[in-house]
Amino acid sequence: MLKRIFGEILKSLWSEWELRLMVLVSLVLQFLLVYFGKKRKKYTGSWVPAITISAWLIYLSADWMATLVLSTLLRGSTELENGLILFWTPFLLWHLGSPYNITAFSLEDNELWLRHFLGMVFQIGEAIYIYVRFRSNTALNAMAIPLFIGGVIKYAERIWALRCASKKQLINYFYTRSTSKNPDESNAVDNMIRTGIFDLPEKRDFVGDPSIAQEVKFLREVHSSFDIFKPLFADLPFQISQDFHEKMVYLKSSSADEAFNFVSIELEFVYDLLYTKNPIQHRRHRLSLILQSICFLSLVSVLIAFSILLHKIEHYTVDTAVTYLLLSGAVYLEFCSFFMHFQSKWTILRYAIPGNKLQKLYHRHVDYKLRSIMSKKGIKKMPQHDLIDYFVKAKASRLTPVIKLIDTANLLQRFWNSSWKPVDTDLKEFIFRRLKEKRPEYKNEGFKLGYVDNKLLAEMIDKVIREKSGLNFEDEYWKMESTDFTRLIFVWHIATALV
Question: Which among 167, 239, 407, 446 has the fewest CB atoms less than 10 Å away?
Fold first, then answer.
């Protein structure tokens, strides 16, 4: 008897609090997405596996939870006659739009943009159906319309970001028609892969403008280099002049710390291109600002109107508190998006040269950030994978077959058998100096992949073995020059692990 009564009480409580709890969980997941999206991009260290797995679980859970709440609302109940609960529906579209700093977790998400688009169509239709079916004659109906508009904009922005980062769209974006009036120059450019820089005069001025500060020039050089190498992420070649290669790609006059910092910032641009809304918002900068303003103003206006309405009726409930949390949380998330947009290197790059008073004010604000960008020393840690432990421990563990069922790419085992090592200035100097020493040989051989892979790497191994072991290299058995690249990597890995 008591068991049945207790069950009925729990059932009643869950029926009453189900929607409220799920909506709040969906909001919390949005905050966690912002946090882990930032951590995933910046953090290097032993906690990378935990951060990566957490970001993956939260990314999937955020979409699933918002979709689940919409499905629960669609089932309908007498409680939905309460317009305040129905007022929560547009917020789910905002949540499905994802935060500014994470639209995709992996490259596969970008390739599945069409599936996400169809999901968006059905979920927007579902939200509109819920609104029409359960609407009531209250002021909340009119107040929900701006939220619906903002939610659709946010959701569509995410789908567009996924589409633009897909491989096919990247390839299309890398081709362009020349606007040059010189026929010879125009024909040459039409046949080239678009890199953002064709070494035309106006493009050279972007980097070589004498009026810009050294910090701005450095950031422009990084972005220009990023533009050059973007086609490589779509398996495409690229073409640049020898002069531009010497100045921009080779970094001959840079120190090791500057070179590593250069590449580190370049990789941040690549991350933004593939996993965030940054590139699309700066590709159509004015349109993006207009849409962001519409979203933010719709939230603020509804928050003010809702506060005035409640002040008049003076009726406060749990649903009122939940609604305030949803509105305040959405405003805070939009403010975070604006702040990240305001502080991003893309925005700094656009407004690095002060023009009007507003731009001068912005330039003063980010001046310290420009100096800090240039003064950084690049990567501080790097992962070191233990191949021997990876195979030996995996075979010895009884959990390996179970893990492989859910981890087909062996990511967990790779994480478990990797450790993070500091990258000091001496190591950077050694790597950078070695690259500069060997570059003339690469150049003489036309940068052929086989020469770089086998001969030069084998020579380096032979030199180390000769210095450390004193072996007689008259014996062809010890020479590595004829060894293929994959075997050379294994030899180096095993040798360093044993030493």
Answer: 446
Beta bridge partners of residue 382, listed in sequence order: 421
- Per-residue pLDDT at 366: 73
Question: Is 298:149 a contact under the CB 8 Å cutoff?
Answer: yes
| The pLDDT of residue 193 | 46
Say if CB 383 and CB 48 are below 8 A apart. Answer: yes
d(CA 56, CA 51): 9
Which CA distances in Å does 460 have to 95, 137, 355, 456, 481?
53, 79, 52, 6, 10
Q: What is the pTM of this model?
A: 0.84
d(CA 334, CA 421): 37
User: 193-216 burial string, b = 16+ CB within 10 Å, else e?
Assistant: bbbbbbbeeebbebbeeeebeebb
pLDDT at residue 77 in the model: 56
Cβ atoms of 355 and 212 closer than 8 Å: no
Mean pLDDT of the chain: 77
CB 193 within 8 A of CB 236: yes
Q: Which residues contact 103 (CB under 8 A, 6 or more apart)?
A: 109, 158, 161, 162, 165, 275, 276, 277
Q: List the one residue out of 496, 486, 464 whose CA is nearest residue 385.
A: 496
Cα 71 to Cα 20, 60, 126, distances in angstroms: 14, 17, 8
Q: Which residues pair with 376 in a beta bridge?
A: none
* Candidate from 136-140, 231-235, 285-289 with smallest mean pLDDT: 136-140
pLDDT in tens, 256-272: 888 888 888 888 999 99
Q: State residue 489 phi and psi, 5-degree precision.
A: -60, -45
At 418 the pLDDT is 78
CA distances from 355 to 283, 360, 361, 363, 369 (A): 20, 6, 10, 9, 19
Type and span of the H or E element at 383: strand 381-385
| pLDDT above 90 for 455 | no
Q: In which residue are the tokens 């849409």 written?
A: 291
Picking from 204-208, 288-292, 412-416, 469-473, which range would have the lowest pLDDT averaged per residue? 469-473
- How many CB atoms within 10 Å of residue 416? 15
Q: Which residues of 271-297 are buried (b: 16+ CB within 10 A; e: fewer)?
A: ebbbbbbbbbbbeeeeebeebbeebbe
Answer yes or no: is pLDDT of 23 > 50. yes
Tell me which DSSP letter residue 233 carries: G
Cross-strand partners of 246: none
Q: What number of other Cβ atoms are within 10 A of residue 339's Cβ?
A: 11
What is d(CA 194, CA 175) in angstroms, rounded to the nearest whole number?
5
With b for 16 or more beta-carbon neighbours within 10 A and e for fewer, the 465-494 pattern comes to beeeeeeeeeeeeebbeeeeeeebeebeee
